[in-house]
Amino acid sequence: MPARVHAIAVVRTGESASAQLLHTLDAIRDQTTRPTAVTVVVLGDGSAVRAASGLGDIVESVIEARPTTTYAEAVALAGPRIAEGAAVWLLAQDTAPRRNALQLLIGALERSPSAAIAAPKLVRQDDDREIQSLGVSMTRFGRSVELTAGELDQGQHDATEDALGADVRGMLIRAEAPAVLRPDVALRGADEGLDLGVRARLGGARVVLVPKARVGVRPHGPAALPRSAVSRAWATRRAQLHRRLAYAPALAVPLHWMSLLPLALWRSILHLIGKRPGDVAPEWGAALAAMVAFGGVFRSRSAIRSFRRGSWASIAPLRVTHDQLRQRLDDGHGSERGAVSELRFFGGGAWVVLGALLVSLVVFVPMLAWPAIGGGGLLPMRDTVAALWSDTAWGLRDLGLGVVGPADPFTAVLALLGSLWPGSPSYALVLLWLLALPLAVLGGWFAATRVTDRSGLRILGGVLWALAPTFLDALVQGRPAAVLLHLLLPWVFHSASVAHRSWGASGAASLLIAAALACAPSLAPALVLLWAVALIFAFSLRRLRAAARLAWLLVPTVIMFAPLIIWQIRQGDPWALLADPAVVRVLDQVGADAAGRAAIAGGFPTADLAGWEWFIGAEMAVWAPLLLAPVAVLALASALSPRWRAGYALLLVAVLGTATAMISIGVVVSFVHGSGVALWPGSGLSLAWLGVVGAALITLDTVVALAPLRIGAALVAGLGVAACALPALLAVNTGHSEVRNASPSTLPALVAAQATSEPDRATLVITPQNDGSLAAQVIWGASATLGAQTTMLSTATQPPAGSVAQDAVDLVSARDFDAAAALAEEAISFVLLEQEPGANDIAHGMHDDAVEAIDERTGFVKAGETAHGVLWSIDVPIAERTRADATQQSIARVVGIAQIIVVFAALLLAIPTRASRRAARAQSRVVGRAPDEPPLPPRRRWREEEPYTGQVTVAPQSSAPQPSAPDGAAALAEPDIDAEERR
């Protein structure tokens, strides 16, 4: 038995800490074998501890230290007070040893002469039945692993004695152990017990576990890991990196040091894939801290070298292998705790998607032979995938002269679309139109899974979404941004409605929201308001993790739009940020008058009411909105349903969407040939239709209880919407559509051929207008493309610097100047004189005069009449195109890197893992289900070998009562999927 035992108790300041210390001192007094002396180290002002009664009979001294002092530093401060030949017992304010703990620890050291350290079993201070820690080991790469923690103590580990290390709390260090066998101050509050065990092994000794010696602990004492998740992640990683540098062979230390930052990058990627974004910043902080801690590493290596007697081979058997770690961390693959939520897509969803594909092939049958699609707001895409993605970067634009600036975020959506058909990106638009209806049904079906478990209602949701009047109008008029928006919105709803549950859903939703707003920036106010409301609810419920996930939703959007936002603000026109992307055309849409607003209220964004005017005449077309009335009535009834919280939320979406459409028709920020074009109201109506359909499904799911009545109401609503869609579905085959077969280029074949070898040559396109004005545009390469369009030009209220407008006017006028040389200096090699289809006599006269004027000028070689207009080539040496300067290239690199990092992080978060899929399946797909609302019974699968016997098997449920959410916050009060994964 040791002659003496010196206990060191570290305590923080505060009333609760002082009370815990007194409880610990009482437990020390009650020991069957009392320590010889106790030294108390106070982290802060020690006056309150000194004033406490009952210290004199056991506490030999009280030492004050800074509040930021770590546990290892506090133990080092008490070192001079330890008498020679005394064993050291490491305690803290929250460690309450049971009555015979010290006696058992001393006995273990007596029975094991090779043991330098004895470690007790740590249990909850208020419940001895739960083990907090019993033994610590590490992996091959130094990750610390608790061998036993969080288990119910049934004596299953009482025979365990050998371990690599243990929790530092309650450790008894043998008196004969050298002074270096003390907690390492360089570890900064983590892994001190593991490090002591490693040092003991290298010194030829070992750590012995004493399971019968119990010490009650609390979770957040001075010797425990930090309470904050971020601080805890930093402390554990910092300690691991320090141990790696301290344990490595001398020749390997520089290699380990140089690998710290690359490892931080790699582990950051793994953290994002593992849905742990909160660990990314601590990862980099720990790496940087380890890189500069030369003194701590040197002292630790010196201490190990002075004590080392054994080899690392003695430690290898005690490490945790990869298979053991996987088995320890596996929380039961395939177990969903009795709350399995099946998708059942192939029980009806797949068939309705297939049916929509057949309908699409019928209504768009002419497109099957089209190599490209044009008309309306459609243009060809770039020829290569590389060119598509080059349009997404900040830099020189392919419209105008010397236009340098940010790309519209919509170009990234187009690049992604074109990359799906890399051989001919323009054909991707044809496929988009052919697959639009089945893709809309698919998205609507998945969105419906968030509001109902009934297969029939999910099918109805998919059909209603695909037959939305605003969607069909966008298809008929050739509005690619509006079509893509309508296809994206149900996926936005599907992921954003559960973004508070997990980082995976948050990452996917953030990308989808960025894509949706890239297609329709006018939806930004409505979506930001919905986001703010959700964030307020999360904070009000103190769901900080949910709030963090919700806050991430708009981060990719902000980063993608930031360059354009800065540009437009510097131009003094922030309202231009709401402009619709892609081609600006004067197409049919309602006006900002009473009739237009009435049409919007009825769900129609165009004046012809989705084709009903040409189908049955203007007099009868005014009754077309009545076909949508059943859906609207069902949506309003959702406010009275048992799931009224979700009903009100979806009605709010509908109101915000309708308000956006109402306001949009009066906002003019885009211009084409000098004429203003209002925002497309269909974007707001798509959002409104999302809320209306979702609310209607809630009514059918929860209010209409009788199956025949529910089926009848669903049929009435579905048939009404289907009848409303009939004219639009017939428009392409009857010639009432803007879309048409198009060539792969908007320029003559001669221009396209030359652009193959000289892509940096421009064409000046001149178009006489009916009002006597002249429109001029510079197009680079083989064609005007969707990706080349930019709101920097379409929203400009003043001619940009270097505008060619004056040269175009002088070219067709009588002014005497060297026009060919002037255009050649700007790298313009062709001039194309177009004639609009609806040109009047004024435009025809200007066209003829322009032909004569250009023919008379030297340096212009007439190529002749083409399908696109009259073409001239410039027969003088063509200058090289002006490139972006060094500053502009630097800006482009910074912007590109920032956007790539954020999008890549969101993609990593969105990647599903086995654990995230399992956790998602364990939660109800329906969001906002009322606490008293019974779930639908699962559909039984019939099997011949398992005949139905009338018995029902019910999955076991947890007996613990589930707290109900306060009103208006059912969705945010749902379980935390990421927290479940961590368990």
How would you describe the overall organization of this protein?
The protein is α+β, with helices and mostly antiparallel strands and 983 residues long. The strands form six sheets. Strands 1, 2, 3, 4, 5, 6, 7, 10, 11, 12 and 13 form an eleven-stranded mixed sheet that branches. A five-stranded mixed sheet has the order 21-20-22-24-23. Strands 8-9 form a two-stranded antiparallel sheet. β1 (4-12), α1 and β2 (37-43) form a beta-alpha-beta unit. α16 runs antiparallel to α28 and α17 (469-477) runs antiparallel to α18. The longest helix has 28 residues, at 707-734. The protein starts with a strand and ends with a helix. Mean pLDDT is 87; it is low at 331-339 and 940-970.
Please outline the helices and strands.
Blueprint: E1 4-12, H1 15-29, E2 37-43, H2 47-51, E3 59-65, H3 71-78, E4 86-92, E5 96-97, H4 101-111, E6 115-124, E7 127-133, E8 136-138, E9 144-146, E10 151-152, E11 162-163, E12 172-173, H5 192-202, E13 206-217, H6 229-247, H7 253-258, H8 260-273, H9 280-292, H10 294-307, H11 322-329, H12 349-363, E14 373-374, H13 385-390, E15 395-396, E16 404-405, H14 410-419, H15 425-448, H16 455-466, H17 469-477, H18 480-496, H19 503-519, H20 524-540, H21 544-552, H22 555-570, H23 594-601, H24 612-616, H25 618-621, H26 629-637, H27 644-664, E17 668-672, E18 675-678, H28 682-702, H29 707-734, E19 740-741, H30 749-757, E20 762-768, E21 774-780, H31 791-794, H32 805-811, H33 819-824, E22 828-833, H34 841-855, E23 860-866, E24 869-874, H35 886-910, H36 914-921, H37 977-982
Parallel strand pairs: 1-2, 1-4, 2-3, 6-13, 20-22
Antiparallel strand pairs: 4-12, 5-13, 6-7, 6-12, 7-10, 8-9, 11-13, 14-19, 15-16, 17-18, 20-21, 22-24, 23-24
